């Protein structure tokens, strides 16, 4: 059931969208989150390269990285030199585009090489089904299949209010993701822990001024929208200390 507490999380996120009080700087965005423009992420000369400004080590933006052992919503080594935080809503079409296109390439090229760690944050902005999807993803993670749920949920775009993330819908996705104990899944989905986790993630996004989904922080550097994979490659390569030695 969609509780008042869960409603308050989404209301806070929507308020952040309306107010637009961004504290992130140096944004890479095409304006609509599509990432289709050829100039997305281009440097001052239109080269297509990101111009990353140094972020002081003491900047609190670095504290958002959790590096928690056995975090079911994280992918990659805890000590990877580059950490990308992903804020996403499972009803967001642009988030789905990233999940189906860019995400697998980054995993193959950087996560498997030990260079990149991806930490997912639930950022539900499209109402009750977004909240249920976020809680369901967390519940799947409790059985070690968050990323399988991520893939199943984003396999096709879900329009707002489509019913894809109804009570029956999330159970079907859990089964497709390989959740072993569906009864436990249903209990975890409705648990206080699920709500607290989603609220923690959503509040984090609101606090730093995330306005749209998907949004990313790569070692503290913001990238907004479903950008081309080259935008992510450029940022990761610049931020990987080992790349300077090659």
Structure description:
The chain is of the alpha+beta class. It has a single domain (about 5-20, about 70-240), classed as Glutaredoxin (3-Layer(aba) Sandwich). It is about 40% helix and about 10% strand. The protein has a five-stranded mixed beta sheet, sandwiched between helices. α3 runs parallel beside α9. The longest helix is centred in the last third of the chain and has 17 residues, at about 190-210. It is globular. The relative contact order is 0.22.
CATH topology: Glutaredoxin
Q: State the total count of DSSP E strands.
A: 5
Counting H and I runs of at least 4 residues, what is the number of helices?
A: 9
* Cα-based radius of gyration, to the nearest Å: 17 Å
What structural class should be given to the helix and strand makeup?
Answer: alpha+beta
Judging by the overall fold, what is the CATH architecture?
3-Layer(aba) Sandwich
For the record, the CATH class is Alpha Beta
Provide the β-strand percentage band: 5-15%
Helix-strand string: HEEHHEHHHHHEEH
Q: What's the rounded overall pLDDT mean?
A: 83
Query: What is the overall silhouette?
Result: globular
CATH homologous superfamily caption: Glutaredoxin
Spatial ordering of strands, largest sheet: 1-3-2-4-5
Major sheet attributes: 5 strands, mixed
Low-pLDDT segments, ≥5 res? 1-48
Number of domains: 1
Helix fraction bin: 40-55%
Distance between the amino and carboxyl termini:
53 Å
């Amino acid at each position: 059931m969609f509780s008042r507490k869960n409603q308050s999380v989404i209301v806070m996120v929507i308020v952040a969208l309306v107010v637009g009080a961004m504290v992130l700087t140096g944004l890479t965005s095409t304006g609509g989150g599509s990432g289709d423009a050829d100039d997305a992420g281009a440097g001052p000369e239109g080269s297509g390269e990101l111009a990353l400004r140094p972020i002081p080590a003491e900047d609190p933006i670095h504290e958002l990285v959790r590096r928690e052992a056995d975090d079911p919503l994280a992918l990659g080594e805890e000590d990877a030199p580059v950490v990308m935080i992903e804020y996403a809503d499972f009803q967001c079409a642009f988030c789905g585009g990233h999940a189906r296109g860019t995400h697998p390439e980054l995993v193959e090229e950087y996560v498997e090489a030990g260079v990149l760690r991806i930490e997912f944050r639930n950022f539900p902005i499209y109402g009750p089904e977004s909240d249920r999807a976020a809680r369901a993803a967390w519940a799947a993670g409790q059985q070690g299949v968050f990323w399988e749920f991520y893939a199943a949920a984003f396999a096709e775009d879900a329009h707002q209010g489509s019913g894809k993330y109804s009570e029956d819908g999330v159970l079907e996705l859990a089964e497709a993701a390989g959740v072993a104990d569906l009864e436990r899944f249903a209990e975890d989905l409705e648990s206080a822990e699920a709500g607290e986790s989603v609220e923690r993630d959503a509040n984090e996004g609101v606090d730093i001024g995330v306005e749209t989904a998907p949004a990313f922080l790569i070692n503290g550097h913001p990238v907004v929208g479903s950008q081309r994979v080259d935008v992510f490659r450029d940022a990761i390569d610049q931020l990987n200390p080992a790349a300077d030695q090659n």
